[in-house]
């Protein structure tokens, strides 16, 4: 099952999503003959880039959070 495409995390890929959906709406022959393949590749690479960006942001948040926790534990150890 595919994830939902139109989310706040994928806003940068919105134009490509619309074009891809319009291509699929043209009918079965367009899809089966590979007329939408270029748009599919563009969409996949855009979504991959967005996911990578989100992963980096989350990784940075976790690193900051861990640093704060380590600092608090250090303070607790020093005061004990």
Keywords for this entry:
80 residues; rod-shaped; chaperone; mitochondrion; 3 helices; COX assembly mitochondrial protein; mainly alpha
Description:
The protein has 80 residues and is mostly helical. Helix content is 75%, strand content 0%. It has helices at 14-25, 28-32, 37-79. Helix 1 (14-25) packs antiparallel against helix 3 (37-79). The longest helix is centred in the C-terminal third of the chain and has 43 residues, at 37-79. The radius of gyration is 21 Å and the shape is rod-shaped. The N and C termini lie far apart (52 Å). Required for mitochondrial cytochrome c oxidase (COX) assembly and respiration. Its main location: mitochondrion. Keywords: Chaperone, Disulfide bond, Membrane, Mitochondrion, Mitochondrion inner membrane. Pfam families: Cmc1.
Low-confidence stretches: none
Q: What is the mean pLDDT?
A: 90
**What's the number of helices?**
3
Largest sheet: none
Radius of gyration: 21 Å
Q: How far apart, in Å, are the first and last alpha carbons?
A: 52 Å
Number of strands: 0
Secondary-structure element series:
HHH
Please tell me what the overall shape is.
rod-shaped
Secondary-structure content class: mainly alpha
- Assess the beta-strand content as a share of residues: under 5%
Helix content: over 70%
């Amino acid at each position: 099952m595919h994830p939902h495409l139109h989310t706040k995390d994928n806003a940068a890929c919105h134009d490509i999503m619309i074009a891809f959906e319009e291509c699929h709406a043209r009918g079965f022959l367009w899809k089966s003959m590979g007329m939408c393949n270029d748009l599919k590749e563009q969409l996949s690479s855009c979504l991959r880039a967005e996911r990578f960006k989100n992963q980096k942001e989350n990784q940075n948040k976790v690193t900051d959070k861990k640093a704060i926790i380590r600092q608090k534990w250090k303070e607790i150890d020093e005061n004990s």
